[in-house]
Amino acid sequence: MKNTYNPLSSSIRKKLRQILGKRFLETQEDLRAYSVDASPHSFLPEAVALPESAEEIAQILRLAQKEKFPVIPRGAGTSTTGATLAVKGGLVISLLRLNRILEINREDLVAVVEPGVFTGDFKRAVEEVGLFYPPDPASYEFSTIGGNVACGAGGPKGLKYGTTKDYVLGLEVVTARGEIIFCGRRTMKGVVGYDLVHLFTGSEGTLGVITKLILKLIPKPPCQATLALWLEDTEKAAKAFLEILKAKLFPATAELLDDTTLLAVKRFLEKEILRAQALLLLEFDGAKKQVEEDLLQAQKILKNFGLKLEVATSKQEREKLWRARRLISPALKKIAPGKLADDVVLPRSKVPEFLSFAKNTGEKYGLTVACFGHLGDGNIHVNILFEKNDEIKAQKVRVEILNKVLDLCGTISGEHGIGLTKKGFLPKELSPEVLSLMKGIKQVFDPHNILNPEKIF
Amino acid sequence: MKNTYNPLSSSIRKKLRQILGKRFLETQEDLRAYSVDASPHSFLPEAVALPESAEEIAQILRLAQKEKFPVIPRGAGTSTTGATLAVKGGLVISLLRLNRILEINREDLVAVVEPGVFTGDFKRAVEEVGLFYPPDPASYEFSTIGGNVACGAGGPKGLKYGTTKDYVLGLEVVTARGEIIFCGRRTMKGVVGYDLVHLFTGSEGTLGVITKLILKLIPKPPCQATLALWLEDTEKAAKAFLEILKAKLFPATAELLDDTTLLAVKRFLEKEILRAQALLLLEFDGAKKQVEEDLLQAQKILKNFGLKLEVATSKQEREKLWRARRLISPALKKIAPGKLADDVVLPRSKVPEFLSFAKNTGEKYGLTVACFGHLGDGNIHVNILFEKNDEIKAQKVRVEILNKVLDLCGTISGEHGIGLTKKGFLPKELSPEVLSLMKGIKQVFDPHNILNPEKIF
């Protein structure tokens, strides 16, 4: 989809100022603030809009459609794939001012929210009334619910509770034509026409701008417990988890830290945690008796694996066990200046094989590969660490690893999406026929390709 | 979407015979067998195909695309909306010969099946290895898994476990162009490109012919218990259930039978069940201790509602309590020759108001309206009963009831889909802009409108 776009002329800028007043930003300082996200890339937009209503966004899109300039919707800018960057210039629309929690309904078990609400704030508001919104991407304290839906975010709780896309019932969306539409519903079920809700979810702002969300809630599980198993190697951790599943235990979370990740965290903590080379963190939740029963059974299974088994039921103790997991990102940044990160997913049974492959492939090129992540649903975060002049080698490792993922019937992204950084790998996973159907859909929703151009395809 | 189609000429028939051999059916007897489903309508197809592979289906569709004749995919023909009928003539493709369970993987928690597998057979095969496929449409013993996915079927377990669409991970589909494509994945998560899996799910055979399915499984809950509460009125049953939810109990199933439904069942059973005017059936599942605790808490809440509370934990006793629920369909058929049936969904908090409205609206026109169904997720089956010459009145009641559903932020179909019988109501729920996007998608997937014409739109 090659298109030519018009720059934001002074007459377009005048019209945008009429719509937005002081909420139309043009200074170099402002533009630079919106030129980056959590990816390694940077593109300067021509201007930034801070709309406060769906109606304002509709006006902007009608103008963009007429004048042919790119529009890039943006939440908190935590995308790791460059999905929020203005690759072709144009106007970034920040959704941060649409930030109201409009309703949390305890009888219907639904919430109605605007896209700019921070996910952590939303989760707390829901828990305050005894309900639960399970999706928990690592970024939840500083990413928005609209961004989570736009990229189909996941998180550790995916194992038991599914991911963001399992909690979206209805959406208000501004289309590329500048129409405000509603799709989906506020009921638990519905099969009226095609499922546009799931089409917008994970479409990375390329099909419309989400302006309101109806989300499904569930009752909050009253009890949680965490189990930490320190092991001598990573594959053994993956095998231990498969035994848990075979025993029909179904933890809410199963997180893995491999040797490199653990080493990074150890250095960061500046102390040695035993002689462990891997850490498996399991979390069980539910009614008290259920959790007690699960813990006993899990301990029985896991006592034959690993070096040390720790159990925590109080919030404070649990936080302590989770500390190593939370430190991963800053710790990995400390040990290597360069990092290529992917969020691949494998069928659970293939995880042990994949973990050795990733490690060995790194070693073949003299690089370190750190793996951690959501063992529970097979979603492994692969981090290829490199010094500045080793980037080409790192890219080679990446290609071999992603090819292996596809050989093992896996997928190249479980929760980050494609954005800019994985575009090149899309044709490896999707056939030309499937890509052609997807591009056909894009054409229907956004005939002039003004919405977030250069992303996904 | 108006199209003209070519009749199945002798040269087309010759080509179809070359593809299918004796599995190409043309006798009047055969055509009549495929002219009906569980809707009140009937349309004679021109011929019927019994393909045995995706490749054969691809050949048929390439021919249909070239020669412009309609193709109507069909499972077991249990659609209540006429979704499987050959409204424009053409070729019915029965998927019943693609009926192999290809894989049930206990480590990956996935199954790979062909569309013609009966859902009941599949559920049993999965349970034999200790796993669980929750979706349980009432028809599960005689409907196919492919049909369930094509119409987005639901069932009582929707409350806790979601519906069919929550269990579809990947699909092999033959497109209208006769290409065999794969979309989705066999992993638990994935956000690579647009979500075509959910687009095909519930699209009623209008976007492609499903030829293979990758389904998500979960561990089988070890223990079940059923609770039957007989009450003096229907609204009270709905309120009792809201109290259960408020106490953060989350049953797997919450089924309601209103006075008329219960009366029908009573007559059918030829005995009086107490003086109850409504029945609420709750089912809890999970670990043994958990279920025991839930039951105790539920009994405490429900003892102040209703006339009699029964609890069953053994399979045999549970079956006894479920008997009234299972008898509804034959019982309602016995008390009235005509029936207009809808499967509306309301936000849970609106269910009591809706139940009175439905009853009163029936009474206004001198007709009886029986309501039963999945109280748990607000999915109420509304049955307008009428004598032969009252159909016009019944249609008026239907319109008032469906309008009320939309006024209460509900949806006109939770699990049956639109098909033929609800087409007229689609523009009441969906805006012209949304309909236009859906029609645009249809155009991308099936430019000549050969797949299941006259359905949904």
Automatic annotation (TrEMBL), chains A, B:
Superkingdom classification of source: Bacteria
UniProt keywords, alphabetically: FAD, Flavoprotein, Oxidoreductase
Cofactor(s) the protein requires to work: FAD
GO molecular function: FAD binding; oxidoreductase activity
Positions of the FAD-binding PCMH-type domain: 41-220
Record has Cell division as a keyword: no
InterPro entries (alphabetical): FAD-bd_oxidored_4_C, FAD-bd_PCMH, FAD-bd_PCMH-like_sf, FAD-bd_PCMH_sub2, FAD-linked_Oxase-like_C, FAD-linked_OxidoTrans_Type4, Oxid_FAD_bind_N, Vanillyl_alc_oxidase_C-sub2
UniProt xrefs under Gene3D superfamilies: 3.30.465.10, 3.30.70.2740, Vanillyl-alcohol Oxidase, Chain A, domain 4
Pfam families: FAD-oxidase_C, FAD_binding_4
Keyword set includes Oxidoreductase: yes
The family this protein is said to belong to: Belongs to the FAD-binding oxidoreductase/transferase type 4 family.
Protein name: FAD linked oxidase domain protein
